[in-house]
Specification:
The protein is α/β, with parallel strands linked by helices and 393 residues long. It folds into 3 domains: 77 residues, no CATH class; 55 residues; 180 residues, Rossmann fold, CATH 3.40.50.300. It is built from 12 helices and 11 strands. The chain has an 8-stranded mixed sheet with strand order 6-5-7-4-8-9-10-11, with helices on both faces. Strands 1-3-2 form a 3-stranded antiparallel sheet. Helix 8 runs parallel beside helix 9. The longest helix is centred in the first third of the chain and has 20 residues.
């Protein structure tokens, strides 16, 4: 199997190279963003998209037959060859793809098929050049082929003719569409005279403990609120000690609990505070037993807000899977972390659509109490589309 790698400034240009050399049956195996080194590797260079592809891998498409290309005629049974005539040459079978990566390859293959649709002789009317360029830009920010096409088709239907020739106006229109879909919860609301209980939940490694520290520091040092911490992260001693270090620096009371009963007692002990933040152990969305255990802790805490913390650097499927399974613990809002580590933020929109959760905070670094901001629809839509950069850039 021959595998080739192509680099170009955009996903569109890279896929065009694949099509030109390997043809419309090429399979895209991998994509990533790279930097071309400058000055003998001492300084990072310009950003490029790298696409690895092969014409010898069979990736089955999930598109309906005949959607982008003519359906091949069904083969008829071959007639028996005369005894004195040798059989024709057999086509070599293409190697199969392992099932665990077939879905990912199929997603990438759909990008190639979409480009094939745009080639001369396609069986569906072509997009104008400006709209096709917009489509590939949406792919570049990891928005996903289905959602990118949906937005482009809406632009085609709604944008005035004179606007379609201006890429900037087209991108602004898409930004407004995305902005309309984003709901925000605002910051944690502290009510005078009673303790506000807010818990953070999510998979392992998404930055819950660091986010708790940022929230605690901002409410204590900048808003002068009385803040307390509870952690049920007894599985990772290092995480408990990390939070205890933050608590000592900021001068906050902290309690470690290991059972739902201890959770209730700790909440009652902190009844005279303004805000009580609960840090929880990272749970695998696939572990239903641990999810039920987490729900028992939160029921005893009677949390007013349950923020699902997800990493922006995770894949779209992982984000959707986590949002779906953590809904069982009563999530009320969504916090997105690690914006500075994400290749693209397009995976956020499908998660917001599927979960129905409003966004509360965004984080993009490790600095406490900085590197956190309240989610705002206009800025987030522009971040998703790459019109604005996060604070860490």
């Amino acid at each position: 199997m021959e595998v080739k790698t192509y680099r170009a400034a955009t996903m569109h240009d890279a896929l065009q190279l694949v099509l030109r050399e390997l043809g419309p049956d090429a399979a895209v195996l991998h994509t990533r963003e790279v930097r071309r080194p400058r000055w003998f590797g001492l300084f990072p260079g310009t950003r490029e998209i790298e696409v690895t592809a092969s014409a010898g891998v069979n990736v089955p498409s999930r598109l309906p037959p005949g959607r982008f290309r003519q359906e091949a005629p069904r083969p008829t049974a071959p007639s028996a060859a005369p005894d004195d005539q040798p059989p024709g040459p057999r086509r070599e079978a293409r190697p199969s793809v392992p099932p665990e990566i077939e879905g990912q390859l199929s997603d990438l293959q759909k990008m190639v098929e979409e480009l094939c649709r745009q080639q001369p002789g396609g069986h569906r009317r072509d997009l104008p050049e400006e709209l096709f360029r917009l489509f590939t830009e949406l792919l570049d920010v990891e928005l996903g082929e289905e959602l990118a096409r949906e937005l482009v088709e809406r632009v085609r239907a709604e944008a005035p003719l004179e606007e379609r020739s201006d890429p900037r106006l087209l991108k602004t229109r898409v930004a407004r569409m995305v902005e309309e879909e984003l709901r925000v919860a605002g910051p944690i609301s502290v009510v005078p005279g009673r303790v506000r209980v807010a818990a953070l939940v999510g998979p392992t490694g998404v930055g819950k403990t660091t986010t708790i520290a940022k929230l605690a520091a901002n409410f204590r040092l900048r808003e002068k609120r009385r803040v307390g911490l509870i952690t049920v992260d007894t599985y990772r001693i290092a995480a408990v000690e990390q939070l205890r270090t933050y608590a000592d620096i900021i001068d906050l009371p902290m309690q470690v609990v290991s059972s739902p009963r201890e959770m209730r007692e700790a909440v009652e002990r902190f009844h005279d505070l303004d805000l009580l933040l609960i840090d929880t152990a990272g749970r695998s969305p696939k572990d239903e037993v641990k999810i039920r255990e987490l729900r028992a802790f939160l029921n005893e805490a009677e949390a007013d807000e349950v923020h699902l913390v997800l990493s922006s650097a995770a894949g779209r499927r992982a984000l959707l899977h986590a949002a779906r399974h953590f809904a069982a613990v009563g999530t009320t809002a969504l916090i997105l972390t690690k914006l500075d580590e994400a290749m693209g933020l397009g995976g956020i929109l499908p998660v917001v659509r599927a979960s129905g959760l409003p966004l509360s905070y965004l984080t993009d670094g490790q600095n406490v109490p900085d590197d956190i901001e309240t989610a705002e629809p206009r800025r987030l839509s522009r971040l998703i589309l790459g019109i604005e950069s996060h604070a860490g850039d």
